[in-house]
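Ticket #4471: structure export looks truncated?
Reporter: QA, pipeline team
Priority: medium

Steps to reproduce: submit the single chain below to the structure queue and open the exported record.
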Amino acid sequence: MAVLNVAAPPIPMSFSAQTTLSFPPPQTIADTGLPISFIYDLALKIIYFAGEIQAHTVAEEMRLPHTNLVEIALNFLVKEEFCQITGATGYSERAYRYTVTTKGSNKAQELLARNQYAGPAPVPLTVYNEAMNRQGVGMVSVERDTIRNSFNDIIISDEMLRRVGPAVNSARSIFLYGPSGNGKTTIAERMARLLGGNVYLPHAVYADGQIIRVYDQINHRATSDTQRLGGINENARRDTRWVLCQRPFITVGGELTLETLDLIFDPVSKTYEAPFQMKANGGMLLIDDFGRQQMRPQGLLNRWIVPLEKRYDFLTLQTGKKIEIPFDVLIVFSTNLDPRELMDDAFLRRIRYKIPVGNPSWEDFRAIFQMNCAQRNIPYDEEMFKYLVLEHYVKVKREPKSVHPRDLLDQLVDIARYVRKDPRLEKELLDAAVDAYFVKLDKI
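Actual output as written to the record:
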């Protein structure tokens, strides 16, 4: 099957020791790496949807400079009688107001039949690939003190930290496994925090005439720099087709399917949505509750055998063509199922780090309980803690979980509020909290 390699003029980029790329704003249409006809068509669709719009607003919508770029597109649309100038609110061409003509409306509808994209100008696939390869998670290096500080708000053993540090520095793949309720997801969240730094992500990517949406406000967090720059102006310091974001941290669970691991085509807009692993490039993708997805675990594992090892992935367009993209993602699998039931030895070998997350020791359980009491302004009472452990754990052979102190104390606070008492550790409230929280299977 053919592999698509989109040829496009490279956009100048600089690279700093902080793994932050810098994109100077394009000065000409050629600098965008996009066909000139695409720029014209995009401007026409934006004007068509707006009804009437000022030139500088068209430039802001396209995330491209007006001077020597958007103005050329607008002049072309007027010359070809696709648009007309209806007035101005100032003396510069940036203040001209545009609307489509009948001819332009017909042309716009023809373009919309191909795709309805009318947003920020995309970046060429080759430029996207180069940018992601030069700001990947492999450039992150984490030291022991940094790791300790990242976990200072939770109780975690030194042994676990010794496992986490090298795993994050590997920037490859991690398998967290163990019984539920012991903080696998919390550990993964702290790992994502350890990655730190920012990455540039494009609003969209242009590949073989197709539009792939990448940046979205749900999965990505733009930095204050992006918010401050806002739209395009003549003094913009960079190409704002790119959004400066915190390193992505995307979590998927039961909704994950094989279909969502490839380009998702929208038959209405006739554009593509990037799959999770592409949106997570430069950051972390957490597969939570691995093994409980609608698809068989083996299907996911087979899909990612090559990307995990080679660090690149292939995605399929509606035309059948394949495009190659970086697979620069720290993949974290989290499960409370037996790993031997989920994957074979061949795939386990491809997972760089396997980290068991077991039940806390009684000493750690006490520390977690004390921390949660302090967070809720509940005075800690050692005798009442011992009562809880002996009566509701040792006697009934119940295993401690890291999540129990938080949940039991929340129950205690709710019950105390209901009976109009101050929340404190006493037998009556502890017994009621335990009775409300744990399921008694023998009574069902």
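Status: closed, not a bug. The export was complete when the record was re-opened. Leaving a note from the reviewer for reference: The first strand starts at residue 3 and ends at 4.
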